[in-house]
Amino acid sequence: MKNSYHKKSLERKLRIAILGSLIFSGFLFPNSPSHQKTIDMEKSYSREVESSGVQDLTEEQIKQITNAIPELILKHYVFEEKGIKIAKEFKKLLNSKKYLKIHSPDSLAVVLSRDLEQISNDGHMYVKRKKLKKHSGSSGKSWEELEKEAEIKNNYGFESVRILNDSTGYIKITEFMHPKRTMPTAVAAMKLVENSENLILDLRNNGGGYPGIMMYILNHYFDGSPTHLSTTYFANKDNVPYTQYTSDLVYGKLRKGTPLYLIVNKKTGSAAEYFHIPHKHLVLLK
User: Same domain for 152 and 115?
Assistant: First the structure.
């Protein structure tokens, strides 16, 4: 594949990202150094194919995109044996030539994502089209600027915090956002419910995010020496696995010994799944 950054006539490129997954105590999380996330890190291995303007993809471009996918899976999937199986199943779909009929970049991304998730049972493996910034006079905002705007707009992921009639605290979290900027909101939320007898965390449709706030909430349920919660392994064997422990970082009362209830659905994933991991430590986790 050739790079064409020198061609000013191209307004967009189609970037196909096959996400290399990493295992996190039985749960799969994406890995992205650009966002410098600790647990929910998304590491994207991409291939770029030219797509001028909003024109449809040619058959050759579709082949370039789809043929790259098995190679990326074999190279980067954290479980080698499973990666081989996923690549093998995907090659069957390639041989059917079903993708050659899908010339819309967005439609192709949707179908590829659906098929990859169905084959792998891993929601972190998906394909998406990204717009490139214009090479001159661009006023496009960086991902960090956009992220900060989204945090403010969405109240740092805390949609609702209230006390129910039966002395039960309720917190609805739609996303775990950057911990440094989100911490004041998280502290305020936990302080509001700290005198409740029970706590409900509503994580429906929470696709994950940064781990810091999730860890902060969990800290309320532990006391004493740090408790080992998980070990993270990477597809790249040169990366040393690292562990996650509880800490005494709590601004307010501990909730150790009080019931914690989770509300989840099929769209609860990644860092939001982490609350299921320490169930062996949290006897009262419901």
Answer: no
| Domain count along the chain | 2
Please state, in angstroms and rounded to a whole number, the distance separating the CA atoms of residues 133 and 64: 22
Query: pLDDT digit of tens for each residue in the chain (286 aa)?
Result: 444 433 333 333 333 333 333 222 223 333 333 333 322 323 333 344 443 445 789 999 999 999 999 999 998 888 889 999 999 999 999 999 999 999 999 999 999 999 999 999 887 888 988 765 554 445 578 889 999 999 999 999 999 999 998 899 999 999 999 999 999 999 999 999 999 999 999 999 998 899 899 999 999 999 989 988 888 878 787 888 888 899 999 999 999 989 999 998 888 888 887 776 655 555 444 4
User: Cα dihedral angle (122, 127, 133, 135), rounded to 10 degrees?
Assistant: 120
The distance between the two most distant Cα atoms of the chain, rounded to a whole number of Å, is 65
251: domain CATH number? 3.90.226.10
Contacts for 112 with CB less than 8 Å, ≥ 6 apart: 16, 65, 66, 69, 99, 126, 127
Burial class of residue 148 (count of CB atoms within 10 Å of its CB; 0-12, 13-18, 19+)? middle
81 and 189 in a single domain? The answer is no
Q: What range defines the domain where residue 154 resides?
A: 145-280
Q: Is residue 113 part of a domain?
A: yes
On whether the CB atoms of residues 198 and 165 are closer than 8 A, the answer is: no
Q: Is the dihedral of CA 190, 194, 196, 198 positive or negative?
A: positive
Model pTM score: 0.68
User: C-alpha distances in angstroms, 245 versus 91, 219, 231?
Assistant: 40, 9, 9
Query: Is 284:260 a contact under the CB 8 Å cutoff?
Result: yes
CB atoms within 10 A of CB 199: 21
